Amino acid sequence: MNKTIKPITDIEKTIRVPGDKSISHRAVMFGSIAKGDTEITGFLTGDDCMSTIGCFKKLGIDIEADGEHITVHGKGLNGLAAPLGRLDVGNSGTTIRLISGILAAQGFDCELNGDASIQKRPMKRIIAPLTEMGADIESTNGGYAPLKIHGKKLKAIEYTMPVASAQVKSSILLASLFAEGETVINEPVASRDHTEIMLNYFGADITNTNGRIVSRPVKELYAKAIAVPGDISSAAFFMVAGLIVPNSHIIIENVGINPTRTGIIDALRAMGGYVNIINERSSGGEPVGDIEVKTSHLKATELSGDIIPRMIDEIPVFAVAALAAEGTTTVRDARELKVKESNRIATVSAELGKMGADITETDDGMIIPGGQHLHGAVTDSHLDHRLAMTCAIAALTSDGETTITDADCVGISFPDFYEVLDSLKR
Ligand code: S3P
Questions:
Q1: Are 203 and 221 within 8 A, CB to CB?
Q2: Which pLDDT tens digit goes with each residue over 289-338?
């Protein structure tokens, strides 16, 4: 599907964004290995989270889906059954990396695969620590999917993370639930901690003392209700829209504002953006609030170090804010962008480049001169949901129309993105 976007001005709107992708995945996975029924509300029905549901159904878990309301009939830590045929993770890195930590410890073998993009995402980063724990994982494709996992008895390890990755950390933490002894993970730079929060909510014993994460064995996890907040990674598109579209004011209700995810708010505020959090509250151990943004005069900033993992998925749309700012913005320490759904350093530069943006790619980030007025163009999503949405937001302040090809990939994380975008028009 192609989607054509026209520029707009004067947005005055209160919106909601769909459920958090990271939390939705985890609710299904952890619910499946907990005892009892996990009732999930606000679940993201995007393709990635539906892949997670598909995998656990194949592993013998009964999951009822009624729109954003999901019931997972968990069978406890030892309740999964050998699947018939391959597990298909679709486009989802979170599914394949997290589920591998669980499958490594089962009393059966299985095979995992996904789409063309997933077959280019590095899996050695989970294979290495899980193998140290005693796992037997075969990659028939030199460190990429498909993966064959032969279930084994696992033992605890102490592991120092070479890259900040919540998916790797979570994979090890899930394996630790089945391992003998205390597992220790040293995390030099903090990554999102939804796994630690939700597993503890379900009865696990995980502590984090200054980046030293310790998981002690428990006998079982117990189901609890999960209300998934809106995804800050989806909200980020409308935060940037509200800041750069003239005469605008947007409130995004019910967004997860876990401090390991709010780098985008810090970065936009550092640029002089009006980003206000109202109605702060807590749900299932996760902080939630409404985010208010107003058109602002943005100034360039420098992004590097600890903030990068706290906003890694938002850097594509952050680039759109930087293009509108006064001065030159630099992004460093963001090499991980190269191994996302697309190589986002290359694809963001190339696709916004078609709209006239002059972005210099570097080995670990981008140099983005501000004050650039863009023009409409035909851009391609590279089947990367966040790239499609980034081009759509850039189109709002460009001259003329922009057409995005393969635009329907937004269904991965934000199925009604274009409807919400269209609703901003007066
Ligand atoms: C995620 C972690 C991040 C993020 C991804 C979701 C998660 O990936 O980019 O969209 O749910 O744990 P990495 O762990 O590779 O940084």
A1: yes
A2: 999 999 999 999 999 999 999 999 999 999 999 999 999 999 999 999 99
Q: What is the DSSP string of 273-313?
A: -EEEEEEEEEETTEEEEEEEEE----B--EE-GGGTTTSGG
Residue 368's closest CA among 386, 389, 394?
394
Domains of the chain plus CATH, in order, are: 3-19+230-423 (3.65.10.10), 21-215 (3.65.10.10)
Strands 328-331 and 286-294: unpaired
165: CA distance to ligand 1 center in Å? 6
Alpha helices in 177-295 (DSSP H): 194-201, 232-244, 263-270
Cα(105)–Cα(108) distance, rounded to whole angstroms? 9
Report whether 420 contacts 385 (CB < 8 A). no
Q: What is the pLDDT of residue 67?
A: 96
Asked whether 261 and 232 are in contact (CB, 8 A), the reply is yes
Mutate to test the pocket of ligand 1, among 163, 167, 258 (most ligand atoms within 8 A of CB): 167
Q: How far away, in angstroms, is 373 Cα from ligand 1 center?
A: 32
Type of residue at 44: L
For 347-405, the pLDDT digits (tens) are 999 999 999 999 999 999 999 999 999 999 999 999 999 999 999 999 999 999 999 99
User: Does residue 146 have a cis peptide bond before it, meaning omega lies within 30 degrees of 0?
Assistant: yes
Element (H, E) at 186: strand 183-186
Whether 66 is a known active-site residue: answer no
How many CB atoms lie under 10 A from the CB of residue 201? Answer: 18
Q: Which of 20, 21, 22, 28 to mutate to test the pocket of ligand 1 (most atoms within 8 A of CB)?
A: 22
Distance CA 45, CA 18 (A): 8
Write the CB contacts of 350 (distance below 8 Å, at least 6 apart in sequence).
none
